[in-house]
Design a protein that fits this description.
FAD/NAD(P)-binding domain; 18 strands; binds flavin-adenine dinucleotide
Length: 396
């Protein structure tokens, strides 16, 4: 079966890997001219981590990733006000935990398929027409090809979802926050293996020192408007961050100065994708969705990459198990994965206040909880509750 996968992020290459493994013929189309680089760092753990183990990727992920030692909150003068050792993450996940640049995780997965799978970079699907046997696909480049199935793994703002299902507004739940990330070279101080956060009411800026003298900065801030016109340009996005963080203390002036010279800035609203839960609602004929395109839980879940990998693994496994009976396979995938990811989405909402607390009192309480995480039993109970992956996957 020829399967077209839109998106070479996390879910797309994972799906391509497992489909190729089972004897399908996947093709990936990626809008960007090459694999995306830069961006933010993700915590990667759980069942998603275990699946990458089955792909033989763990040594590489450990080599490219980081074992964070401390999560630290500082005040406007840079003084540590709350912290906990990150060892509880490793303990609770039995060592299956690493922090890694999203782009490195994506590239590592992609490296497993690049010789085996056709990849079309710098193109995007512009039309999908289905008849009883085939998906007739037209690409923005003008290329036309036929496939048996089309899978949207093209992220929160999925094109496949828009073409085959409906407009984004039907499925997106805006959570009231914006997020931005960039990397700079030569920034000081570094605080190796420490995730440093400066949080004020309604906003937070964090920094994390990476290899090759690079530092990643992550801004999160509350915004009642899902979209502002100035967000459409790089200069407008930078101006917006200046207006939000320009009067803040800590290293904000210095970070904003580094931002001015950044050529690459990730910027987006924080949202979740909720497809309806009725039977068959996650597919339209020969088309279905995985990863953020189907069920984005947002950065607040801290597990979107792992969830994308789990979804890809299940979908490929079900297509294999049903010998390509896509109607059954799509239904089984939804039945197995949707309730699990719904719980993760609900859990994520509880964390919204930790990134950008709504009041001084919430900020104070958050810092107290951060300090409580230094108590081993408390950390283990609190962390394991939300990090558990309660899903039983068939043995494909
Ligand atoms: C700031 C931030 C922090 C996060 N932190 C964590 C974390 O700590 N842990 C964690 O597990 N997850 C985290 N996440 C979530 C995680 O990054 C996502 O859930 C994960 O990347 C989803 O994978 P995906 O493959 O579905 O989508 P993506 O990784 O977004 O990949 C989608 C791909 O599709 C491509 N694409 C888009 N449109 C088209 C098109 N029209 N045609 C072709 N290709 C297209 C894109 O270029 C991209 O390559 C975080 C997210 C953010 C924003």
């Amino acid at each position: 079966m020829r399967v077209l996968i839109s998106g070479a992020g996390i879910a797309g290459p994972t799906l391509a890997y497992w489909l190729a493994h089972y004897g399908f013929e996947p093709t990936i189309v990626e809008r960007a001219p090459e694999l995306r680089s830069g961006g933010y760092v993700v915590d990667f753990w759980g069942l998603g981590f275990e699946i990458t183990g089955r792909m033989g990727l763990i040594p590489e992920l450990r080599e490219k990733g980081y074992m964070v030692e401390e999560v630290r909150t500082v005040n406007s003068r840079g003084k540590r006000v709350a912290w906990f050792p990150a060892s509880s993450f490793t303990r609770v996940t039995k060592g299956q935990f690493v922090s890694i640049a999203r782009s490195d995780l994506s590239a590592s997965i992609f490296s497993k398929i690049e010789d085996k799978v056709e990849a079309l970079f710098g193109d995007s699907i512009s039309r999908i027409e289905q008849d009883a046997d085939t998906c007739h696909v037209t690409f923005e480049s003008g290329l036309r090809r036929d496939f048996d199935l089309v899978i949207g793994a093209d992220g929160l703002h999925s094109r496949v979802r828009e073409l085959a299902f409906s407009d984004e507004s039907q499925f997106e739940k805006y959570l009231g926050y914006k997020v931005a990330a960039f990397q700079a070279e030569g920034y000081r101080p570094r605080d190796e293996l420490t995730y440093v956060m400066f949080t004020e009411v309604g906003q937070q800026i964090a920094r994390f020192a990476m290899r090759n003298d690079r530092t990643m900065f992550l801004f999160t801030f509350a915004d009642s408007l899902p979209h502002r016109p100035e967000e459409d340009t790089l200069a407008g996005r930078k101006a917006l961050l200046h207006s939000r963080f320009g009067n803040s203390g800590w290293e904000c002036p210095q970070i904003l100065q580094a931002l001015d010279s950044a050529g690459d800035l990730y910027f987006d609203r924080v949202g979740q994708i909720h497809l309806p839960s009725d039977r068959g609602a996650w597919s339209r004929g020969r088309v279905t969705l995985i990863g953020d395109a189907a069920s984005c839980a947002s950065l607040l879940a801290g597990e979107g990459s792992g969830l994308a990998i789990i979804a890809a693994y299940i979908l490929a496994g079900e297509l294999h198990r049903t010998q390509g009976d896509y109607v059954k396979a799509f239904a089984n995938y939804q039945q197995l994965f949707a309730p699990f990811v719904r719980k993760k989405q609900k859990m994520a909402l509880r964390y919204a206040g930790t990134f950008a607390p709504k009041s001084r009192m919430s900020l104070f309480l958050r810092n107290q909880i951060v300090n409580l995480l230094r108590i081993r039993w408390f950390a283990d109970v609190a962390v394991s509750r939300d990090m558990r992956d309660d899903i039983a996957i068939p043995n494909y």
